[in-house]
Amino acid sequence: MFEALVLGIVQGLTEFLPVSSTAHLILFPWFFHWGGEIDSLTFDVALHAGTLLALLICFWKDWLDLLFRKQRLLLLIIIASIPAGVAGLLLELIVESRLRIPSVISVSLIVIGIFMLVSEKVYKHRKIDDLGVLDAVVIGISQAVALVPGVSRSGITISTGLLRGIERETAARFSFLLSTPVIAGAVLLHLKKMMTGGEEHNLGLFALGCSVSAITGLAAIKFLMNYLKKRPINIFAYYRFGLAAVIILGIWLKG
Fold first, then answer.
1. Domain map (residue ranges) of the chain
2. Exposed/middle/buried for residue 52 (C-beta within 10 Å: 0-12, 13-18, 19+)
3. Which tens digit of pLDDT belongs to each residue from 39-64?
4. DSSP, res 38
């Protein structure tokens, strides 16, 4: 139960802060030698269900606007969701079997950290109503890259938005709206696999992780949206560099 509580907190915070939730969910069991259902993709899905709930609670008004008033923006979100959906279906097995390792994560943390710093150099003035199809396609492709552990969905999509000249808060809002259908699709896909796999699971463990990740996810969304009103994302890039250094040291010590 303790491990589920810790990973629920980690997931809720790191899913929305641009530091990569997948990286942290892989690294905590790796560092502390946690095993069993805690260190499984199925438990990851339960945690992602919690952060999906956080998104829906935070942005339900936005989704009502998208459905009934801002259909153009809804169309852009649909367009931007396609690359990640296709990539997820085609590359799922490769990602799960070959890329969920500390060496890949450390490289991803560094590369996207540099990308985030570069994106902050671009002057930002565009609002969410200024977004076009090209913006949706470019940001959507960047979200597909987030399948690689260590990249961070919010990190790469917000940074790509900044490079397109979109202001920080707008880039974050579009990133969170865009992540909703992708996370929902992943949760439903793996939930179906879990239910048809014939395996027994500790539902109490999953419920704890889900609820904790939802609560901490709500806090993380509120924090980041307020933070980006006045401050750059540089601090998160520096955190990524520090985490990468810790991973590299851990690999060296374990080797």
1. 2-254
2. buried
3. 566 677 788 899 999 999 999 999 99
4. G
H-type alpha helices, the chain = 2-14, 21-32, 41-68, 71-94, 102-119, 133-145, 153-163, 168-196, 203-227, 234-254
Mean pLDDT of 6-18: 92
> Comparing C-alpha atoms, which of 137, 138, 157 is closest to residue 147?
157
CA gap 207, 203 in Å, rounded? 6
Selection from 204, 33, 17, 179 nearest residue 112 by Cα: 17
> Is there a contact between 29 and 2 (Cβ–Cβ < 8 Å)?
no
Task: Please tell me what DSSP assigns to residue 126.
Answer: B
DSSP β-bridge partners for residue 126: 166
Place of tokens 């990602």: 95
pTM of the full predicted structure?
0.91
One-letter identity of residue 66: L
Q: What is the token pair recorded at 93?
A: 């097995």
Q: Which two tokens stand for residue 124?
A: 């930002």
d(C-alpha 157, C-alpha 175), whole Å: 6
Q: What is the pLDDT of residues 60-98, one digit of tens each?
A: 999 999 999 999 999 999 999 999 989 988 887 888 778
Structure tokens at 137: 């396609």
Residues in the chain: 255
Q: Name residue, tokens 């139960």.
A: 1
